[in-house]
Amino acid sequence: MINITFPDGGVKQFEAGITPLQIAESISPRLAQDVLAASVNDAEWDLTRPIDGDARIKLFKWEDHEGKHAFWHSSAHLLAEALQELFPGVKFGIGPAIENGFYYDIDPNGHSITSADFPAIEKKMLELAQKKQEIVRADISKADALKLFGDRGEVYKCELISELEDGHITTYTQGAFTDLCRGPHIPTTAPIKAAKVMSLAGAYWRGDEKRQQLVRVYGITFPKKKMLDEYLALLEEAKKRDHRKLGKEMELFAFSANVGAGLPLWLPKGAALRDRLEQFLRKIQKQYGYQQVITPHIGNKNLYPHSRGGRGIPAQTDELPAPLRDIQGIPAQLPRAAAASGRIRHRVSLRTERRTARTHPSARIHSGRRPHLLRSLADQRRVPESDGHYPLHFQDPEI
Question: In angstroms, how far is the first alpha carbon of the chain from the final one?
Answer without folding.
Answer: 67
